[in-house]
């Protein structure tokens, strides 16, 4: 039967429209890199890539609207295992590729020329050729780098050879404790290649600590473990690719009431409070599921679909047959910690079945797992029984929006509800954010998002999406000169990190010490030093560098990453108690602090909890004394930064002058110079994982 493994594609190839999977627009603008073997033989056995393992995933991704590129280990035309394109094994995907001239399999570039962190999915196709050129340190490093950057890595069949040399951050095998599917020893025996392969892949992965998910031979078996997706054999290629797409999408669970009446008043869920959020999430490419407390068809409040109140979202749902409202599963059957957002829709029916210990426990569990919980209108009934870790009401001290007592009076249901929701939440210690009746009011407090009424449904959902993104604050100097030397911020040290974070889907804000326009060191934007990132910023009007707010107006503990950009201007306004306190506060809150070049001036006054220098015993990279001498500013700076940090107890990691050197020590990340800006930002992202 020969080699039962994968095959590649080349690009970029962009489909003109995204098709849906599970009702979602999953692939639009996603970037995919498919990696193929270049080996034509294995221990004297003629082989290569298994065609379906490239072609199947290629068309899954292409038809979902992804931008798809194909590369191989050594570059050039991809060798296809002849057995994979015989009449016995050729698939419809293989035929489709053949009809298009197999163009994506020809003249492929080499994997080493790609930055895997710029792709949403890196897919390692199989074929016995991979047994020769996938289990290497270089391929393992590519896998590790992609996963550290929070990208999806997928492998199918022998493509899982790519995992053998992959390491976790602590140097242990990356597959340890991970659920993995791969070509099984039984399948290897059936194709009579047990004596040809360098080792049995399933046995090897088990020895590295993987949890093997082994289906019957030739069964369509694929498994997802976080951002790592794997499939067993050629038959699993399409399923593996679909799971990889799903792994790139935010997962949302919308929870509805099942109650049809409240104290004799006919009610249910308010249609817009399900439909509005549903389409916000769906149109953003999320994977969306809907459940209810008791399961079955969701009872919709008839008043919500009258001509007076029916919205465009309600009409859209109606035109699609209201399918998401029918035959829903029960909330109790879901693990809320596996969703990015758990959204509790409203309607007066929630007054009956949301304020329970079970629903409160679901809310508490999701928030404890650092997931976003959103509630709209009476959906905030879900918060009533929710508890914090110490047993106190979860809403205590939290900003909350909900259906107000005034609105309850206006709909004349004050006597029907079991209690006035706003009054109840206030009594539990919530800080109520009450807009005018029927105003579009929604509020975010960390991972807890809430909206006041039906009019707030869409806004609430959009805030919930925003709350799932990593939040980054870039801090710049405001100083234009240093000891008579004209300077400012070094452009690449803002622009490089900015685009690393932005392109990774982060929510990015930029501030400066004194506010206003950021002074850019003129030398940093000369032809000699201007980077592609600087040019990109310039093409966008340098808008993120203008009219900046002041650092003192931000709560650094609300950001995942606080990034201190460099430039000699920082020598003037970074080494202060105020900046040091911001660094200490962020790290104490378990946030990532990153500094690049002279941005490490921010660390000089930072203190640990015991009052000692925060950098003591920490590995730090910063602009070196040698680099300072080379730019002839040794006499201008207030002190030599590297020398100062050493005197404070830091362990300096000093690369060669102008080398791309960056280091991570727990949640503290630092880079040496402008050349390290992008690497430093990527390490900062990895440190949030």
UniProtKB/TrEMBL annotation:
SUPFAM superfamilies assigned: Class I glutamine amidotransferase-like
Q: Name one GO molecular function term.
A: glyoxalase III activity
Entry GO CC: cytoplasm
Describe the location of the DJ-1/PfpI domain by residue ranges: 51-242, 271-462, 491-682
Alphabetized, the UniProt keywords read: Lyase, Stress response
Give the record's GO biological process terms: methylglyoxal catabolic process to D-lactate via S-lactoyl-glutathione
Any Pfam family the entry gives: DJ-1_PfpI
Q: Which InterPro entries match?
A: Class_I_gatase-like, DJ-1/PfpI, Prot/Nucl_acid_deglycase
The family note in this entry says: Belongs to the peptidase C56 family. HSP31-like subfamily.
Specify the protein name: DJ-1/PfpI domain-containing protein
**What lineage does the source organism belong to?**
Eukaryota, Sar, Alveolata, Dinophyceae, Suessiales
